[in-house]
Amino acid sequence: QMADPFLYDSGERSHYGCLGHEVQIEHIKAYVCRPSFFTDKAVIVVHDIFGWLFPDIRYIVDLIAGHGYITICPDFFKGTDPWKTTDHWADFADWMKRHDPTKVDKEADVVLKYLKEQCGAKKIGIVGFSWGGMAVHHLMLKNPQLTAGVSLYGRIIRDSEERYNLLNPTFFIFGEKDHTISYDQITLLEEKLEQYCKVAYKIKVYPGQVHGFAQLKPEDMKPDDKPYIEEARKDMIDWIKMFI
């Protein structure tokens, strides 16, 4: 029996009026926000288990766009139901089997093609949260078109040494109090990356932070957590800016 895997309070959220718009790209819908000026730099945002419609993730898309990137959050669940706050955690393992974060290559390719051909993007980065953090880790091993990646509290899958052979610079963000990812796993990730990774990487653990901390909107943050949340977001943007 799995403990509540993504225990952050997703129920009480302030309303968010989005700045972007929705588009249909082949078989997937996506939320896009563009900066007010032309740019050939883009960032893909991979949502968590609550899907592409969740206000927190749209807030992040708009935030990144505000730093000068064409930012897009595709529906990686392809129209199927995201996890809902009313669902039972006992069913979570089955739901995860149907929503595998390592089976995102086809959708990533569709979005990359759209960004290059329709938006004129030349350099493309990717950031992902939780479920999306796992997807980012996978894609940074597989897709050389992604110039840099940020994986935020994606649980660490250990299936082979190839898991550490990243193709391009990747930054791993974790919360110190995340009960889904133990400190031992983070230490092991660090050791393995040191051994196998041939590109720039970084791992950072933010004090006192629980799972899902980095995507909270300002009005949903606790005052004690706010500095760490803001630091994590600045670190995420700085990593992207360094390479894209």
UniProtKB/TrEMBL annotation:
One of its GO terms (molecular function) is hydrolase activity. One of its GO terms (cellular component) is cytosol. It is found in: Cytoplasm, Cytosol. It comes from the Eukaryota. It holds the Pfam family DLH. Gene3D superfamilies: alpha/beta hydrolase. Residues 28-242 form the Dienelactone hydrolase domain. Signal peptide: none annotated. Belongs to the dienelactone hydrolase family. This is Carboxymethylenebutenolidase homolog. It comes from Rhynochetos jubatus (kagu).
